Each structure stands twice: as C-alpha cells, then as structure tokens.
UniProtKB/TrEMBL annotation:
The keyword Membrane applies. It is a multi-pass membrane protein. Residues 155-178 are annotated as: Disordered. It holds the Pfam family MRS2-like. The lineage of its organism: Eukaryota, Fungi, Dikarya, Basidiomycota, Agaricomycotina. GO terms for cellular component: mitochondrial inner membrane. GO terms for molecular function: magnesium ion transmembrane transporter activity. Its main location: membrane. Belongs to the CorA metal ion transporter (MIT) (TC 1.A.35) family. Keywords: Ion transport, Magnesium, Membrane, Transit peptide, Transmembrane, Transmembrane helix, Transport. This is Magnesium transporter. GO terms for biological process: mitochondrial magnesium ion transmembrane transport. It is found in: Membrane. It comes from the Eukaryota.
Length: 178
C-alpha cells in the first residue's frame, strides 16, 4: 500500500486524473493543480507508515515472547530429563541390591545357611549397596549439572529479554478510519 501511494504521488497526471467530478463536468484539471489530493494522499501515507511501524513492533514483541516461552520450555524439559536420570539411577541402585539379595537367596549351599547373622548381614549389604550406588549416581549427576551450568554462565553473560507493555497506544476514536 505504501509503495502504491508513493507511486501515485510521483505521477502528476494520475493525481490530476483523480478529480473525477471536474472530469465528468468537462473541465479536467491541469497536471499542476492537485495540491489537495496530494495532501490527502500524504496523510494516508503517514497513516500507513504508522501501521507498518506498529506491526513491526508487534512482530518483534511476539518474537521476543516466543523466545522466552522456548527458554522456559527448554528449562522444564531439562528438569524432566534430570528427574528421569535420577529415577533411573535409583532404580539401578535398587536393582543392584536385589541382585545381591537374589544371589544369596538362591537355594545354593554356600555355608552361610547355618549362620544366625547371615540373613541380616546379606540384607544390610544389599541395602547398603543399593543406597551407595543411588547416592553416588545422584551426586555425580548433580556435579555434572553444576559444572555444565557454571561453564555456560562463565562463557557468556545471561541476556535479559524484556517485553515492554504497550501503554502508549491510544484506542481508536469512534468513526475514525485508517
């Protein structure tokens, strides 16, 4: 629209031909007498320019909001992945304890069947192994996450993306046209 208005404003004969009432009455205007129409079209050109600027601002705000939402979703995804890793590590610890208890729970003769403390010792060893493996895995995961977070924050400064609220936009006047 802006390009079309500019093109019409550059052609004097097109501007003069837009006075249709004078043309119908048989009195066509000379090409140099089109000041009123030129002022009107320049006014429309300014309004179109304002609309273009406002739409560009809106597009920029939408883009910034989209980036913020993507960052939030990435952070939530990373937290879910970390939780999944923690659950997997805990499951591995419990599996290792169950393996240990299963080996001693099999009906194989190993000389510990007659001992009074063998059951308690095997149970404590299985629980200790499960707790140790789970604790060690979670500790290492937290250490890796801290190292990667500190490396990310030291290599680049965090950017703050702010989306300004548009309070300077006046509501349209009743009966106003753009």
């Amino acid at each position: 629209v802006q390009a079309a208005i500019d093109e019409v404003l550059e052609q004097d004969e097109d501007l003069a031909a837009m006075y249709l009432t004078d043309k119908k009455a048989g009195h066509p205007r000379p090409e140099s007498e089109h000041d009123e129409l030129e002022v009107l079209l320049e006014s429309f050109s300014k309004q179109v320019e304002e609309i273009v600027n406002e739409s560009e601002t809106t597009m920029h705000n939408v883009s910034a909001t989209q980036e913020i939402v993507e960052l939030i979703l990435d952070a939530n995804r990373n937290n879910l992945l970390a939780l999944d890793l923690k659950v997997s590590i805990m499951t591995m610890g419990l599996g290792a304890g169950a393996l240990f208890a299963g080996l001693f729970g099999m009906n194989l003769a190993n000389g510990m069947e007659d001992s009074m403390i063998a059951f308690g010792t095997a149970s404590l060893a299985a629980i200790g192994l499960a707790v140790f493996l789970a604790w060690n895995g979670v500790r290492r995961l937290d250490k890796i996450r801290r190292v990667s977070l500190s490396m990310n924050s030291s290599t680049r400064r965090p950017n703050r993306i702010s989306v300004p609220l548009r309070t300077d936009i006046a509501p349209p006047r009743p009966g106003a046209t753009l």
